[in-house]
Structure formats: structure tokens, C-alpha cells
From TrEMBL:
CDD domains in alphabetical order: RT_Bac_retron_I
Domain Reverse transcriptase, chain residue ranges per copy: 61-326
Database matches in Pfam families: RVT_1
Protein name, entry field: Reverse transcriptase domain-containing protein
Organism per entry: Methylocella silvestris
InterPro entries assigned: RT_dom
């Protein structure tokens, strides 16, 4: 007799809040040493004494900015939300997660999985990339014509007031707000969709256009909005009976003929207009299924033979794979192939004689394709003991100095951050001259990493010499630099009385300070150490395969690599 499985326990409100703050808070491009784990734990521990949603929604803040490269030759600006605003938003979603789940599920073609996943500490599973592969295969097998559509500047142009439109209907919301029925107006204002609208505005200096780019919680908000697009009767009729999927704002729909596909495209365009959204005409197209393919580069890079016992054969194979990878990057005008190449090197059982060669390959791709700097950081953590000789010190010193010269003055936060992290792991000292900067640093993430370096004795100047001056007006505690200012007080980086006074006077930050809650994890950083004499290769290189594999499990990138790179 088959024993029935025990149904999973229902996710509690406290668990939902903790998961939203821990796993849905940060964008995937942020380095994993920025963490909200302790903040999430603090909020659950103090759940009964947390200020109510209404009080949190009265506070206006700004989110920090973090510039990161795309896999194509462009950049995007990620958001580091203020903890007060993110707490308010997370509370609303946690309290109404059932209704949020129901709303998102009305979009039948979305690939955003709203099932809870306690094992991964997520309120919603999130984007399902495996389903994308399966759905795409089904669509291409069934239909000769494909409509691909993309919303232009989607996250930046979302009108927050349109969230209640998507859930309750645009006409109802507008008529209620313009009407005289106070009871109905109050009911609308108390609805969870209206509360999310207010929370987003409060976290973005009361702006009604745009939502933070990066955090997974922003994808939840986007899904709520896009559910309204699918309720458009004309667009819904066009989709009826057709296989399709939507990955956030990217639509992929199959048709038997081009005329029907164009009608659907027009219906989608008009449905988006109702929400002040527009199609990206460059990325929106109607094409034959026969021209949709990825060129086979993923398979070629992943299956290429690299595991040789002979050092010569392994080195030749890695060199050949690098050349193939670079050719694919050039042909695709995209750096995704080199990401797959880096992953191969990080899992490779390196023949000791090839270690310096592999190191140089990582340095090359990290310099030329800066989106790969996170993999260089992983490599440095895994093989730190092999990189303590003077030759490696000089190699990394010159490499990091070149990267700073290329990116520090251009506002390239991702590149400067990961390069500073590598300095921290290896114990390389940093100065203003070394970074090629002569002005205060504005990036909150870079400032935070500099603070960590200062406590390790790796910063020549005092941290106060690097920081941007506090704003003459407005709240310092509510501004874009909340992270480094808070950590500077917590970790005693600063002697600035204004920073200390405002952070300690803030209602939320003062409680966080009392419990020593940090948003940073510098456990992989080294203290400053003198360089070892030049050796051919450090003794650790002679370790056996078993030791090398154990070392390889201790990587820096704790957060999952962004799925959109796959």
C-alpha cells in the first residue's frame, strides 16, 4: 500500500517576509558580499514590534544605483533599495501573497512560477528557464510563423498608478478616484495593489514612473502589471488557441500565417498603450521559425574536451576553446559564450604545470569581457594559496591597476567593485593614485567595499577621504548612500559627526545598530600581508587532485549566476 506523502506546510507570514527580504531583495549583478540575510533575520525576530505598513509608507527614500554591463555592448543601472522601503513593500506582498499569486496566474503564458519554494527560501520560485526551452520547442514544432515582441524600457517606464488598473480594471480605478463615493475611494486606497503603488513611489522619492531594476521583487510587480495586458479582450482573443510564452516583457507566440501574427502584434501594441507602455520596434518582429536558432555555441563550449592528464594536450585544448569562444562572441556580438568558457575553467581539474596559463586566460577574459570579473574573483578565492608568490602579485597588481584606469572615472560600478574585491581577497593595497581617481566616490557599493578594505589595512587613505560629502539638504539616512553611511557608523569607518548623528537618530537604523545588523560579508577578504619570495609555483600547486577539488567548492559567488546569461 502506497503511503500518502505529507503535504508541505503552508508558508507562514514570517517566513514569507524573511524570504522576500533575503532572496528577492538584491539584483543578481550585485556581488554576494552584499547580503540582506541578517536584515531579514532581524525583521522576523522583531516582527511583532515592526512599525505598521502605514507608518513605513509615510517614509520617502531613494535607492542606491549600481551600473553593470550587459552581455551585449551596453549597460544597465541596477537598484539597491533602501531597507525601510523594501521592508514596506515586502510586508504588503507577504500579507497578500495569495492574491498576488492568483493575479499573476491569470496570465496563462507567463514563465514566472508563483509556487512557493521553502527549500530555496523563496516565496515564489521565479522565472522558469527550463520551461522556456520546452515551450519554445513546442511552439517551433507547431507553427511556421513566430511573433517575438519586447516592451521598450519596460521597468523604467512602468507607471506605478497602473498597478491597480491591472488588478481592478482601469475604468473602475479612474471612475472611483474621480467620483464622490468616499467609501469606495477608501476601499480602493486600502487595496493591496494601491498599497504597492504607494510603496514603490515612496522608495523612489515619490516618482510615479519606473520601478527598481534588478530585485526579483520588481519582477513580481512587473508580473502583476502584465496580468492586466493579458486581460485585454482583443489581445486575449488573438492568443486563444495559440501556444505562447512570456518571459517578463518578452513575448514569443506561434501562428500559422503572417496576417494573423500581425493582427496579434497590433492588439498587443494597443493593449500596452492602455498602460503607457510601448513595443520596442527594433526587437519586435514577425519571422519564420526556420531562422530561429542559437548557432550551437553553447553545446560546443560545454562539450569541448579539456580533461587531459598531459599538460601539453590540456593547454592546447584550453587555447583552442578560448579561440573558438572569442570567435563566437564576435559573431554573436554578445559576451555570453565567454561566460560559459569561464565556467568551464572554474570546474577544470588543472594539470599543475598549466596553472599559470589558466590564470592568464582568466585575466585576459576578465579584462576584455568585464562581465566575467565575478568568475575571476571565484578563481582567486579558489586558488588564493597558489597566488601568494611575487610573480602573481605583480601580475594582479598591473592587471587591477589597468582595470581601474579603464573604468573608475566612467562610473562603471560593477567593474570597480569586483576589482576591489579581488584586491581584498589577495591583500593588495589600494590608494587614490592606484585607482586613478581624484574626486570623491559616488557609488554606494564602491564606497562600502572601500570601507571593508580600510578595516583590513588595505586602504592607504582614511575612508572619510574617499566618501562623497553628505548632501547639504535632505535626509542623509534616506538617500542613495544609505549603505556605506550606515556601515561606516556600524563598523567605525568614519569620524564625520553628521553621518554618525543622522544614522544613529534614524528609527530603523538605530535598531539595526543596536543588534549589529550588517549588510556586508567580508569573510573572504585578507589582511595586508607581505609578499612571498618569487618561486616557480607555490607549493600548494603540487597538491593532489582530491585537495584541488575540495578547494574548488569554496567559491566567492554565493548568489546564483543570473539565469538570463544561460
Amino acid at each position: 500500500m502506497k503511503v500518502p506523502s505529507t503535504p508541505p506546510k503552508k508558508m507562514s507570514l514570517k517566513d514569507a517576509l524573511r524570504f522576500l527580504l533575503k532572496s528577492h531583495y538584491l539584483g543578481e549583478d550585485f556581488p554576494p558580499l552584499i547580503t540582506t540575510e541578517k536584515f531579514a533575520g532581524f525583521c522576523v525576530k522583531n516582527f511583532d514590534s515592526l512599525v505598521p505598513d502605514k507608518t513605513l509608507l509615510e517614509r520617502t527614500t531613494l535607492y542606491g544605483l549600481f551600473s553593470a554591463p550587459r552581455t551585449t555592448n551596453s549597460r544597465r543601472v541596477m537598484a539597491l533599495p533602501h531597507p525601510s522601503s523594501q521592508l514596506a513593500l515586502s510586508l504588503i506582498i507577504a500579507e497578500n501573497r495569495g492574491e498576488v499569486r492568483k493575479t499573476i496566474r491569470t496570465s496563462k503564458i507567463t514563465l514566472y512560477n508563483v509556487s512557493p519554494e521553502k527549500s530555496a527560501e523563496r516565496v515564489f520560485v521565479g522565472l522558469d528557464f527550463e520551461q522556456r526551452t520546452k515551450k519554445e520547442a513546442e511552439i517551433l514544432a507547431r507553427y511556421p510563423i513566430i511573433m517575438k515582441a519586447d516592451v521598450q524600457n519596460f521597468f523604467h517606464t512602468i507607471y506605478t498608478h497602473s498597478l491597480p488598473w491591472a488588478v481592478l480594471g482601469k475604468n473602475y480605478v479612474k471612475d472611483t478616484r474621480e467620483g464622490r463615493d468616499k467609501v469606495e475611494k477608501n476601499k480602493l486606497e486600502q487595496h493591496w495593489a494601491s498599497q504597492i503603488d504607494r510603496a514603490i513611489q515612496r522608495g523612489n522619492s515619490r516618482e510615479t514612473f519606473g520601478i527598481p531594476v534588478g530585485p526579483d521583487i520588481s519582477r513580481i510587480i512587473a508580473e502583476i502589471l502584465l496580468s492586466g495586458i493579458h486581460k485585454n479582450s482583443s489581445f486575449a482573443k488573438c492568443l486563444d488557441g495559440h501556444k505562447a510564452y512570456r518571459l517578463v516583457d518578452d513575448f514569443f507566440v506561434g501562428f500559422d500565417d503572417e496576417i494573423t501574427a500581425r493582427r496579434c502584434q497590433d492588439s498587443l501594441r494597443q493593449a500596452l498603450w492602455e498602460y503607457n507602455l510601448y513595443l520596442n520596434d527594433i526587437k519586435t518582429q514577425i519571422i519564420h521559425s526556420s531562422v530561429i536558432f542559437d548557432g550551437g555555441w553553447k553545446y560546443e563550449i560545454e562539450r569541448f574536451q579539456l580533461s587531459y592528464k598531459s599538460s601539453d594536450r590540456q593547454r592546447d585544448a584550453v587555447q583552442r576553446l578560448l579561440e573558438i569562444t572569442l570567435a563566437h562572441c564576435e559573431a554573436q556580438r554578445d559576451s555570453r559564450p565567454v561566460i560559459f568558457f569561464c565556467r568551464r575553467l572554474l570546474t577544470l581539474n588543472i594539470v599543475p604545470a598549466n596553472f599559470l596559463f589558466i590564470r592568464n586566460c582568466m585575466l585576459r577574459v576578465g579584462r576584455d569581457f568585464t562581465i566575467c570579473l565575478r568568475f575571476v574573483a571565484d578563481f582567486v578565492v579558489m586558488y588564493r594559496a597558489d597566488l601568494l608568490d611575487a610573480e602573481s602579485f605583480e601580475a594582479f597588481k598591473g592587471w587591477t591597476q589597468l582595470l581601474f584606469a579603464m573604468h573608475a572615472k566612467r562610473g562603471h560600478d560593477f567593474e570597480v567593485t569586483w576589482t576591489l574585491i579581488i584586491c581584498g581577497v589577495l591583500g593588495l593595497r589600494v590608494s587614490k593614485a592606484f585607482l586613478s581617481v581624484d574626486e570623491p566616490i559616488e557609488s554606494p557599493v564602491v564606497l562600502a567595499i572601500l570601507g571593508l578594505l580600510s578595516k583590513k589595512g588595505l586602504l592607504d587613505e582614511k575612508w572619510d577621504d574617499w566618501k562623497i560629502n553628505p548632501p547639504p539638504t535632505g535626509s542623509l539616512a534616506n538617500g542613495r548612500s544609505w549603505l556605506p553611511y550606515y556601515e561606516a557608523v556600524l563598523r567605525d569607518w568614519t569620524n564625520d559627526p553628521q553621518i554618525k548623528k543622522e544614522i544613529r537618530a534614524d528609527a530603523l537604523f538605530s535598531k539595526l545598530l543596536d543588534e549589529k545588523v550588517t549588510f556586508l560579508d567580508d569573510s573572504n577578504f585578507s589582511e595586508y600581508i607581505p609578499r612571498l619570495p618569487i618561486t616557480t609555483v607555490s607549493a600548494h600547486l603540487k597538491s593532489n587532485t582530491k585537495d584541488r577539488l575540495i578547494t574548488r567548492t569554496k567559491t566567492f559567488s554565493g548568489r546564483k549566476i543570473s539565469e538570463h546569461y544561460t
